[in-house]
Amino acid sequence: MSTPTFDAPFRETLNDLLAWRRDVRHFKTDPVDRDIVLDCLKTVSIGPSVGNSQPWRFVLVDDQNRLQKLTELFEATNAEALSDFAGDSAKLYATLKLAGLKEAPIQLSVFADIHTNVGRGLGSRTMPETKAYSVVGAIHTLWILLRAHGIGMGWVSILPPDAMAELMEVDPTYKFIGHLCIGYPQEQTLTPELVKAGWQDRLPFDEFIIER
Ligand SMILES: Cc1cc2nc3c(=O)[nH]c(=O)nc-3n(C[C@H](O)[C@H](O)[C@H](O)COP(=O)(O)O)c2cc1C
Questions:
Q1: Distance of CA 128 to CAs 54, 157, 173, Å?
Q2: Nearest to residue 131, comparing CAs of 196, 50, 26?
Q3: 153 is in which domain, residue-wise?
Q4: Is 126 contained in some domain?
Q5: Atom of ligand 1 nearest to the CA of 199
Q6: Which has fewest Cβ within 10 Å: 14, 120, 143, 209?
Q7: Ligand 1 pocket, 143 CB below 6 A?
């Protein structure tokens, strides 16, 4: 295979793709072709990981009982999260839709095998958390690949990690990274939902750059 070149129009399209990626909680009921998701996961699995440890583990959750229990876990955890807020923040939080667990036709629970010997520990001796970071990077790649198919994804972190490993019946030493709701989005927009809702605006770009 000859080395591809990525030209200016491609870069522009890629920028558009990144700008139009959204965290989606409002899904259409249309089904999503599971093979598209599996193809995307295949591409994701050639992504970067510390020491090439490839610690991502994706649980495709179809079982309705498990999904029901997951929804109950989310609702209980979200109610606890709400109780951390008071006044206007509590009122606004209560209006936010923070997961599409009941609607998303494809759902993935993602874990990191943080004790894997694959890669022989290279790169993670002083920073064991890099195994989890590798999985976070993989999730972002999946977000982008799915969006290129017009498919939306929502990351749900309002869940208890230990209970997730138990519910998904994975090795209890796996670290829960996030639950992903996947489906066709009800709307395409450049504006994040939390910005629209008045919860949190985007910060000015120069706040992110530190020069020394
Ligand atoms: C690690 C992580 C955890 C997140 N957890 C949740 C969540 O539990 N519920 C939710 O509605 N959104 C969650 N989000 C989505 C963020 O709220 C969203 O990315 C942010 O508001 C910016 O919106 P955008 O992704 O549409 O640009 C999470 C995002 C990340 C990266």
A1: 14, 21, 14
A2: 50
A3: 23-187
A4: yes
A5: 21
A6: 209
A7: no
Does ligand 1 come within 6 angstroms of the Cβ of 111?
A: no
Does the beta carbon of 98 lie inside 6 Å of ligand 1? yes
CATH at residue 78: 3.40.109.10
* Domain-embedded: residue 17: no
Q: Kindly provide the b/e burial profile for residues 65-103, where b requires at least 16 CB atoms within 10 angstroms of the residue's own CB.
A: ebbeebeebbeebbeeebeeeeeeeeeebeeeebbbbeb
Cα separation, 176 vs 106, in Å, equals 18
Q: What was the pLDDT predicted at 1?
A: 84
For the CA of 25, the closest atom of ligand 1 is 11
What pLDDT score does 52 carry?
A: 98
Angle, CA 104 vertex, CA 78 and CA 156 arms, to 5°: 35
**Identity of the amino acid at 144:** I
Q: Got the DSSP string for 89-144?
A: HHHHHHH-----TTT-SEEEEEEE-TT--TTTTTT-SS-TTHHHHHHHHHHHHHHH
**Number of H helices and number of E strands within the chain?**
7, 4
187, amino acid identity: E
Question: Using a 6 Å cutoff on CB, does residue 188 contact ligand 1?
Answer: no
The secondary structure of residue 3, as a DSSP letter, is: P
Q: Dump pLDDT digits (tens) for 169-211.
A: 999 999 999 999 999 999 999 999 999 999 999 999 999 999 9
pLDDT at 17: 98
Query: How many independent structural domains does the chain possess?
Result: 1
